[in-house]
Amino acid sequence: MEQLVIKGNVRLQGEVTISGAKNAALAVLAAAILADDVCVIENLPCVNDIKVLLQSMEQLGVNVDYLDQNKIKMDSRHIHNRRIDYDYIKKIRASYYLLGALLGKYKKAEVALPGGCNIGSRPIDQHIKGFEALGAHVEVKHGMIVATADDLTGANIFLDMASVGATINIMLAAVKAKGTTVIENAAKEPHVVEVANFLSSMGADVKGAGTDVIKINGVKELHGTEYMIIPDQIEAGTYMIAGAITGGDVTVNNIIPKHMEAVSAKLAEMGVTIEEYDEAIRVIANGPLKNIQVKTSPYPGFPTDMQPQMTALLSVTGGTSIMTESIFESRFSYTDELNRMGANIKVESNTAIVKGVEELTGAEVTAPDLRAGAGIIIAALAAKGETAVSGVEYVDRGYEHIEDKLKRLGADIFRVKDKSDKSMFKVV
Ligand SMILES: CC(=O)N[C@H]1[C@@H](OP(=O)(O)OP(=O)(O)OC[C@H]2O[C@@H](n3ccc(=O)[nH]c3=O)[C@H](O)[C@@H]2O)O[C@H](CO)[C@@H](O)[C@@H]1O
Ligand SMILES: C=C(OP(=O)(O)O)C(=O)O
């Protein structure tokens, strides 16, 4: 078991380059199955979710050739298998995109029910509703989702909620269906737009992505393409908050500032200086910050995937702040860990009441999921003394070389390879 050991209370300063967006890349990789030729995909983040998805795609018969650690060539012309077992995908959520892609291309898919972060019940009824509307027969048996169709035909689908996963999955299943599909109450997240752009670059006819109505005219064939993944707005937001909590001066490079608006606006409201450039944001924090209220909501609202990181910052901000989670029902389990570090956070239903404390202190803590892990690391960067963070495997799902990037900003952080290395570590 690995741990990240962080000696906090160090001001972060400098520049950090943001990697490709994990959640966009996962969907794009699955979408590439639909091509009848080779696809080259660049700016893939070097994170475990991507490795796991690619390994499971190799089981299908996809040929994956790494051109470098962030660039692959994918050949999906010789897929011989339509089934993905649980062992391959129990750690990731995005495996559900293989359902839409295989169904869209072969009219048959068998994929184990997805894993992913344990942040509440995560049904996929809207995905299934969409596949059925297109004419598929879907059954869940022995932990597998089995979807089959004689033919897929375009349909009008109104989503009960603006689900990112369902919107993308229905796009994947519909892109080669006969006729026109209209998805209403579609999710508007940047990775939905990204998948639409990627599909269009393969010859698909998708309009309206980024609005709440997406229209897809089915096409017969999709060709290969070369594509560059957009930057990860959640990774960017994580480093922006790491800068803010340490009273630092951090420039986050290789980003799309528009995607950061909800995070930038909240930081500015707290009194952090935000300088926006074409492809970068500089975050400067000096002096005390103001307490605020935050509510997570679908894009362009404040992202649920930034909720733990922001709560960590609020935990050392004067006054009482309120964080309301409106997407997932149990995304506050990490607050117990922050409280072990001296925070004063009380959770009532979907709201965290965060009374800012003077300082946090290092402790042994465990990340219960990916973004919670990021929130705990942010708290540790500000805490006095050393914090040892377990559950690093969650963090590695979604952050490329996190300790190297933080080290370059001046953080005192290192990875302990196994328990015996703990002799190096002493809580002070
Ligand atoms: C791999 C990936 O991209 N994961 C992201 C994706 O997850 P994911 O695709 O799972 O999230 P959704 O947008 O689908 O979920 C939003 C809400 O809708 C509910 N729901 C969703 C589908 C469904 O069929 N039925 C249903 O009830 C969910 O339980 C949740 O309450 O979007 C979330 C919301 O931005 C992010 O936190 C995740 O990081
Ligand atoms: C919750 C996340 O991932 P997943 O949906 O794959 O669990 C995330 O990326 O923050």
From TrEMBL:
The EC number(s) attached to this protein equal 2.5.1.7
Q: In which pathway does it act?
A: Cell wall biogenesis; peptidoglycan biosynthesis
Catalytic center residues: C117
Instruction: Please list the residues that bind UDP-N-acetyl-alpha-D-glucosamine.
Output: R93, R122, P123, I124, D125, Q126, D305, I327
Q: Which GO terms describe its biological process?
A: cell division; cell wall organization; peptidoglycan biosynthetic process; regulation of cell shape; UDP-N-acetylgalactosamine biosynthetic process
For this protein, what is any one GO molecular function term?
Answer: UDP-N-acetylglucosamine 1-carboxyvinyltransferase activity
Q: Which residues carry this modification: 2-(S-cysteinyl)pyruvic acid O-phosphothioketal?
A: C117
- Indicate where this protein resides in the cell: Cytoplasm
Q: Ranges for the Enolpyruvate transferase domain?
A: 7-406
Give the record's keywords alphabetically. Answer: Cell cycle, Cell division, Cell shape, Cell wall biogenesis/degradation, Cytoplasm, Peptidoglycan synthesis, Pyruvate, Transferase
Q: Which GO terms describe its cellular component?
A: cytoplasm
Q: Which top class of enzyme applies to this chain?
A: transferase
* Catalysed reactions, semicolon-separated: phosphoenolpyruvate + UDP-N-acetyl-alpha-D-glucosamine = UDP-N-acetyl-3-O-(1-carboxyvinyl)-alpha-D-glucosamine + phosphate
Q: Where does phosphoenolpyruvate bind?
A: K22, N23
Which sequence ranges are marked TM in the entry?
Answer: none
| Family in the record | Belongs to the EPSP synthase family. MurA subfamily.
Q: What does this protein do?
A: Cell wall formation. Adds enolpyruvyl to UDP-N-acetylglucosamine.
Q: What is this protein called?
A: UDP-N-acetylglucosamine 1-carboxyvinyltransferase
The source organism is Vallitalea pronyensis
